[in-house]
Design brief:
Length: about 500
């Protein structure tokens, strides 16, 4: 991040600004998702029963890769709860991400392909494993898009990418203490579908009519620690198998999707195409030292009233460093801070800490850009992921959003462990941060945000008292319960 001179944050661009021409589908979809047009209200779409219901296989205690633990700390709803709140956050608590488990030896379930039901926290066997597949668990993450599209309309597809990034981070953080973890956010969607034993998205409804298509977007590999690091993740070995068992058709699981849903599916399939490098790139994941299993389990998105107090500057610098460092790719990061001397900060090149990027209060503009969520104007601080220009390639659009979600997920877990309150913010309209700084418009858009607040009783000093070092509160501070309302940005 360049060390730019201090500038005053510019006001928001007019909501009625002329939108740029759309040279292709993706560009048009980006313009649309970032436009001020409000999605039409549609009735809340309840979650359908989990479509895979093959027999549940008993777990094998004592295995190196303990899937019960990894999934309980990441994607599963806590036992006895309605399933809306899970260790991983999700836009509108709609939880569109599904996990297909491709298991070799060394896991707490016998080798085979499984679909994980996050509400019951059960793995349903869908088929066998390839002969001689290496030990470990390959988890393919897909999205079932219909409920998120019903809720957010044309703004939904970036949220589906962000949600998948959060889910990949949750799995990686849960697994990284006892397994070696590699994460791919760019493997070819068709290869991921084949590996998971699913039809390619465009063929899904011909092959499995009456069931909801799933779009694969990411994969996480967990292997026993200390194994060879130079072996390719076994996507091709799994993809060579025949397709695994089908989900159960369900009424309303759409044979004729509404046009917005069909368009979003088409777009996400297109975005996930990577024929030049189908196996994807794989990056190791680790977990920030302070993040405990309890922090992962108790993470919550705090209600806005608990997010008003700016965290100490040292803590903000640590969260920003986590967001920037968990992946080598993806967007840039800036943090907007309130308090007595509000400013925007970026990381200081080559040394720890925060460098001032602009003085002035950006939060009212951020509140306007975040679909008018006014509480953001009085929040403590907002961590911002930005980049993804108007003419970004589909690979850049995919990585910008997946990595933003992944890194914000890691940042939220770290913030929780440090006792901070936080809440992700996913929908951004006309949020051209670069243009607000006076740079060329259309090059530097906000793609994700994480609002951060010091707990009301914490002993850390607000950002304005620069001389006093902040004291991290204890890691076990329990976050407040959410308001229970679905946000509708
Ligand atoms: C990608 C993403 C976008 C989100 N966007 C918003 C938002 O714009 N406004 C908001 O209040 N909460 C937002 N949230 C927080 C969700 O509402 C929250 O995760 C969900 O209600 C579940 O609650 P929990 O995080 O406490 O488990 C977002 C979460 C994610 C993962």
């Amino acid at each position: 991040m360049p060390d730019t001179p201090v500038r005053t944050a510019a006001p928001v661009r007019g909501a009625g600004a002329v939108l740029p021409a759309a040279p292709d589908l993706l560009c048009a979809a980006l313009v649309e998702a970032r436009s001020p047009r409000v999605p039409e209200l549609s009735p809340y779409a309840p979650e359908r029963p989990f479509p895979w219901n093959a027999p549940v296989t008993a777990g094998e205690p004592g295995a190196v890769i303990d899937l019960d633990r990894v999934l309980r700390l990441s994607l599963a709803a806590p036992v006895g709860t309605p399933g809306r709140l899970r260790p991983v956050p999700s836009a509108g608590a709609l939880h569109p991400v599904r996990a297909h488990l491709l298991l070799g030896q060394g896991c707490s379930l016998p080798p085979g392909r499984y679909a994980h039901d996050p509400r019951t926290h059960r793995a349903h066997l869908r088929g066998p494993a390839p002969d001689g597949v290496r030990p470990g668990a390959l988890v393919v993450l897909t999205v079932a898009a219909s409920r998120t599209i019903a809720h957010y309309g044309h703004r939904a597809w970036p949220l589906l990418l962000l949600d998948t990034g959060h889910a990949a981070a949750a799995l990686a953080l849960a697994g990284a203490t006892r397994a070696d973890v590699l994460v791919s956010l760019d493997a070819d969607g068709s290869l991921l579908s084949a590996a998971a034993g699913l039809p390619d998205a465009p063929d899904w409804q011909n092959i499995w009519p009456g069931t909801e298509p799933e779009l694969p977007l990411a994969a996480v590999l967990l292997t026993p620690p200390g194994g060879p690091s130079d072996i390719d993740p076994p996507l091709r070995a799994w993809a060579a198998l025949p397709r695994a068992s089908a989900p159960t058709p369900q009424p309303g699981a759409d044979t004729t999707p509404p046009c917005e849903l069909a368009a979003a599916r088409h777009l996400l399939h297109h975005i996930a195409e990577a024929p030049g490098r189908p196996g994807g790139t794989w990056h190791p994941a680790s977990r920030p030292g302070e993040v405990t299993d309890r922090a992962l389990e108790t993470r919550r998105s705090a209600p806005p009233d608990d997010l008003k107090r700016p965290p100490g500057k040292e803590l903000l610098a640590r969260i920003l460093a986590t967001a920037r460092s968990v992946r080598p790719d993806g967007p840039d990061w800036t943090v907007a801070v309130g308090g007595a001397t509000p400013a925007l900060y970026a990381a200081t090149p080559g040394r720890p800490g925060l460098g001032v990027r602009a003085v002035g209060d950006a939060r009212p503009t951020l509140a306007h850009w975040a679909a008018g969520q006014q509480w953001i104007a009085t929040s403590g601080a907002v961590l911002l992921a930005h980049g993804c220009p108007d003419d970004a390639s589909h690979a850049t659009v995919r990585s910008s959003h997946l990595v933003a979600g992944y890194a914000a997920g890691a940042a939220q877990a770290h913030a929780t462990a440090l006792g901070l309150r936080s809440r992700p913010i996913g929908s951004w309209q006309q949020a051209d941060l670069g243009a607000a700084f006076g740079d060329t418009p259309g090059r530097d858009w906000i793609v994700h945000g994480l609002v951060l607040g010091a707990p009301p009783t914490a002993a850390d000093s607000p950002v304005t008292t620069e001389a006093t070092p902040a004291t991290p509160p204890t890691a076990s501070a329990a976050p407040a319960a959410p308001s229970g309302e679905e946000e509708r940005p």
